[in-house]
UniProtKB/TrEMBL annotation:
Pfam families hit by this protein: HDOD, Response_reg
Domain of life: Bacteria
Positions of modified residues (4-aspartylphosphate): D53
GO biological process assignments: phosphorelay signal transduction system
SMART domains found in the cross-reference section: REC
Limits of the HDOD domain: 138-335
Residue intervals of the Response regulatory domain: 2-117
InterPro entries in the record: CheY-like_superfamily (IPR011006), HD/PDEase_dom (IPR003607), HDIG_dom (IPR006675), HDOD (IPR013976), RNase_Y/CdgJ (IPR052340), Sig_transdc_resp-reg_put (IPR014626), Sig_transdc_resp-reg_receiver (IPR001789)
Keywords on record: Phosphoprotein
Record-linked SUPFAM superfamilies: CheY-like, HD-domain/PDEase-like
Protein name: Nitrogen assimilation regulatory protein
């Protein structure tokens, strides 16, 4: 693997080189002292990753990564800069894959780059590029989601201000409230105010819900025939709710829990892409999975050359979502390929997706070989039944408490 490091301070580059040598990193490393020099080097050699400082004279790190993202989209892009450069970093949020605070020890840097490149290898294939190229256009990130994301970066953002952002879009507001009041979220009473929805669901859950609604609505406009996008979204939201419960039970920190909730809400969007491209082949994949008694994602690989998990992750990477979320979506059917094997947001999503098949009844369905290996590796198999009981009990209690009739689900 070849990595290009960019910093206008030669001393910082020498220090970084010494750290990498001490860490015994098996990379080919090149160094540039300006964005302009980095671009020249990119034109003469192939780099797996570019790691750049933010504040540099002339072309800064944000401009450099925007250039790399446009001309070398398969190159991993990382900002290594001081936390005080926050405003500048936000300008490159859509171009970078990861931000690391400066100074950063070599072990963390090595892990971050190896992990990002490992995920890239999952998402870069001729079959995947051919499939995505079959779309007439890719859906865009909903404007409300962008505004919410920007607002939530402000530590002074209030529940009221977040709710008012959603309320600006009447169609989005109607759909958010319709879904919030569905049985999936198990709220004890009817909600008619988006500000109240924020206070009960939390800003991060609302943000992921807004993103999912926007995606599903755009794919409806693209024309997804012979496929119920509404049923798929109900499944994604159910997995998201279960992920939140399991994540809290296992004490994921706030950022990890937010990533897990968002990834769970979006984990199956690749199915929308496949049905937009070739609904007939999707039907063949479903039939093949049933006849051969194999998971759907394996049948998709045999027919399309890629599965819906990789396709969904590719779409999220195009949008510049965080690598942690992209990784969960990409690996939710193949979690043994994860860079680190331990309980994580990925585990919570994988377990929730598996448990969602059981409904409220026991025994649990038989997991496929991939899941059996993963649950054994993470040592969480004995917790699956307790997690299932947790999710079933919460849903049952809230159903008993609910008095207001649920609004009828409408098609996306």
């Amino acid at each position: 693997m070849t990595v290009l490091f960019v910093d206008d301070e030669p001393q910082a580059l020498r220090q970084l080189e010494r750290q990498l040598i001490a860490e015994d990193v098996e990379w080919e490393c090149d160094f540039a002292t300006s964005g302009e020099q980095a671009i020249e080097m990119l034109g003469t050699a192939r780099y797996d990753a570019v790691v750049t400082d933010m504040r540099m004279p002339g072309m800064d790190g944000a401009a450099l990564l925007n250039y790399v993202g446009k001309h070398y989209p398969n190159t991993v892009r990382i900002i290594l800069s001081k936390p005080s450069d926050r405003d500048a970093v936000l300008r490159s949020i859509m171009a970078m894959h990861q931000f690391l605070p400066k100074p950063c020890d070599a072990t963390e840097l090595r892990t971050t780059i190896d992990r990002a490149c490992s995920l890239r290898d999952v998402l870069v294939s001729d079959s995947l590029q051919r499939l995505v190229g079959g779309l007439s256009r890719l859906p865009s990130v909903p404007a409300v989601y962008r505004e919410l994301t920007n607002a939530l970066r402000n530590e002074d953002a209030s529940i009221s201000s977040i709710g008012k952002i959603v309320a600006k879009d009447a169609v989005m507001t109607a759909k958010v409230l319709q879904l919030v009041n569905s049985a999936i979220f198990c709220l004890s009473h009817h909600i008619s105010d988006p500000i109240k929805a924020v206070s009960l669901l939390g800003a991060s859950t609302l943000k992921s819900l807004v993103l999912a609604i926007g995606i599903f609505q755009e794919f409806e406009a693209l024309g997804v025939n012979g496929f119920s996008a509404d049923v798929l979204m109900q499944h994604c939201l159910r997995v998201s709710r279960m992920t939140k419960l399991i994540g809290r039970r296992e004490r994921l920190d706030s950022q990890a829990l937010e990533d897990a909730i968002t990834a769970a809400t979006l984990h199956d969007i690749g199915k929308l892409v496949l049905h937009s491209i070739d609904p007939k082949s999707c039907a063949q994949a479903a039939l093949k999975a049933e006849i051969d008694d194999i998971p759907l994602w394996r049948a998709e690989r045999q027919i399309f050359g890629a599965d819906h998990a990789a396709i969904g992750a590719h779409l999220l990477s195009v949008w510049g979502l965080p690598q942690t979320i992209i990784e969960i979506v990409a690996l939710h059917h193949t979690p043994t390929k994860a860079f680190e094997i331990s309980f994580s947001p990925l585990t919570a999503v994988v377990a929730s997706n598996y448990l969602s098949r059981a409904g409220s009844q026991l025994p649990l369905p038989t997991p496929d070989e991939e899941l059996i290996r993963y649950f054994e590796m993470v040592v969480c198999g004995e917790k699956l039944e307790s997690w299932h009981n947790l999710c079933s009990d919460v849903g049952r209690r809230n159903d008993e408490q609910r008095k207001t009739p649920l609004p009828q689900d409408v098609s996306l």
